[in-house]
Amino acid sequence: MKQVYFFLLFSLLLQVNHTVAQEILPKIKFEKTDKQRMPFNAVPDSKWRDKFPWVANKDGERRHVPVKTLAEGQQDWVSASLSDTLNFDWSQIEFFYGKKRLLPQIVSASKVILSIENPEVSYEIGAYFKKRPVGKLRTTVLQKKKRKVVIVPLVASQMNQTFIEKQLNKIYEQANTEWTMRIESPFIHPLFNHKTVFGAPSGSFQFTGQMRLLRDKYFDKNRMVDEEAYYIFVIPAFSDSSKIGFTIPYKSMGFVPYNQNETQFSIQLARVLAQGIGGLDNSWVNVPESGSSNNLMDTTSGTDLLFFQLEKLQNPDYFFSTRDGFELVKTSNGTVCYLFWEEDKKGNIKWDGKSVVRSLKRPFKKNFLAYRFDVKFAVLRPFYRLGPYYISILNFIFVGIILWLIFFLRRKFKSIWSKTRWKRYLRRPFFWMKLLAGIYLIYLSFSWGNSILDQFKLLTGPMPELNGFTYEKVKKNLFSNVQFRKESEYGVSSEILIQKKGKWSFKQAKSVIYLEVVEEKNGQKKLKYRTSSDYLILRTKDYKERVYNHYIVVSMRDVSGKFLEQEVYNYSGEKLDQLEDHPNVPKRVLVFVNGYRPTSNGRNFNEAFQDIVSAGLEFPNSTNFVYNFDRYEYWEPWGEINLQFQNKINPSVTLYADGHFSVSTSNYRSLLNFSRVAHIYPKRCDNPKKHVCQKVKNDDFLKFISPTKKTENLIDRFANKKGFDYRKAKGQIAGMNVLQELNRYPGMSKNDTLFIVAHSMGFAYSLGMIDVLRGEINFGGFYIVAPENAKSGEIIKEEWKEIWQYGSNFKLSDEDAPCLQDGVAPQSGVAGLPMDKRVFIPENLYNRKGFFDSHFIGYYDWILKLEKRDKGFIKQR
């Protein structure tokens, strides 16, 4: 019997040992190597750790992983170390870059070198033991960039161009960027000299008046501006000697104080360019202590950049602006591209005989068409513009008729009143009713006037109002001249403005412009405009593709008219090669769609809306552009919630769309109405187990009959379907702009996968985007956070691989107390989305609930902390 027990005990121990052995796995640690070409970023111990991507194990535990930067198409190396060489060896470990296996070069029992050949896309590098992951490394692949910078000194001092350019390129090697530099002669102007001290800007997003004056004087004097270059003014000094440079994110112009130490000057220059190219922040707030690193944006002598900074330096791919209507703006999209050129009397486009696209002026893209009125009757011809309304003599005639009617009817009714002896106290209310009706009719007359003018709009033809103007003056006056009107463009088109003998005309065209260079018998080459199309057609390559971007096709013909060659350029002037077989790697595309933007810099959503309540001001509606950074600082200030979503979804491309529109488009229908409700709505109850918020004092005309009313009735509002549909329609413009960003080459988005994070008003806007993007990209995940007027929208659940709605629990059997409801956007279910796809704010976040708090995007970081077993969990990509 003892032998049996001993045998059973021995078997049990073997089983336990076997189980333990099964749970012991090797650990692979990725590290930099002296052989590497591009930077390797290990996970730091500082607060920068939260910016690094992470992976979750089977138990849901999260672990941050390092990141290796790679140059597109260039071989690179990384090392891997094995922590336990007693129980494991390299023959048991497999490495993969995406699905491609990597063969390690063994250096020692504990170390190998991995070679990554010709990387094209940012795959993970994974180490596997018996097909189980034992190590992860994220990569980011950077394209080769060639950029130009023009140095404009105010200081008459010798600057070693070769040395500074070499130092600049040494810093930017890590960004796979090569700079070409040109140093101009000192700029001389009576207002500026080598002793001029420049005032330090008070903020981050606006040039000082002194800076703008220098900018204007320089560019007015130097008309031959290189539109592909960055302009850096080297000034004598800033009044604040600690400021080593200044620019605005995504601007191609900056200011750097002169420094005799050319190595230090090169670092200052690199830092300012990094701010202009990628919007890199020179502030070290909420990150490691200033001066604690060798980062370019930290210390005055640092040159290193982290992977997420390098990614930003890849953007934008197109052109920048030194001057425009906003100080902080960068876009490479717009549904309408504007082209300017000059023609001779025979209709030939004037050009330099070398570069066609450089001979065409390509100043901007907009999301609207400009057209003029061809009004032959003086009474209808507009002479002033009041907001969206055009004022003509007809408006004054109509106002006169209304006032005469009010006066006439007043006398008429007074006579009738005296004869019928109606009660006199009814006369005054009746008079005010007539007056209000008259004012309303006058208001309607502005819309009627616009409708009448639309009958005279001219889409192609002469523009006599601009005759004699220079190109710069036309560009400046095109959208401010009262004779022209703007109309939203929901498709993709072009507007061509042509100068001929000092006279201007315009032509509306489609998205692809076809030009021809024709060789004549005398050897001269003439450039002509032929046609436009929605299709990119290349006869020399038997190529035809429907496009959603702007292209310029230049065809070369010989004397006999035979096609010799056809070249394709995008709007920024970049030549596109390999159209038929251009590499098209599948990408994950993440689009953030923000909601209403309050006119406040309050520290939280509550403070921001309280400012609105008191100030009663709103930002203009969205311009419908799409950006590759958080243009309006809607997401990033609140715990960088956008980066948290990015770490989850791991996108190749991240875009930001602006779904901001007036409160008049919401269920509240007016800012005044919203402000009234926000003011009287009860605050969150102190005791979560004893709510006293079910009723509030009645503040409307029924207060004498019923002194209180249900709190929920304040926010249980009739759906504003018209406002919702308006926002949705504008979202279609943004959808077209997303297609432009993804389709630099036609058809590139077809194998991409879309993920959308939409908040508040952004839900309606995102539905408009989806209508345009459907069929042009695959749908991955749709994450709807606190949607405004959700019941007016409808989704097709089956076309999304992952979809959730997050928000407060309202008008359901187990709803939260009134004081915990989202009062900004009272929640309702999205049509087409079943209840099991709705996720409510967790009960343990009581202090994050309330009229404002339940809507605040910064408080929705709990979404990213959900476990795999929880509703609303977002799959880690």
Overview of the structural elements:
A hairpin with a 2-residue loop joins strand 28 (493-500) and strand 29 (503-510). Mean pLDDT is 85; it is low at 4-21. The protein is of the alpha/beta class and 877 residues long. It contains 15 helices and 44 strands. The longest helix is centred in the middle third of the chain and has 28 residues, at 393-420. The strands form twelve sheets. Strands 37-38-36-41-42-43-44 form a seven-stranded mixed sheet, with helices on both faces. Strands 2-5-12-11-7-8 form a six-stranded mixed sheet. Strands 14-13-16-19-18 form a five-stranded mixed sheet, with helices on one face. The radius of gyration is 32 Å and the shape is globular. Helix 14 packs across helix 15.
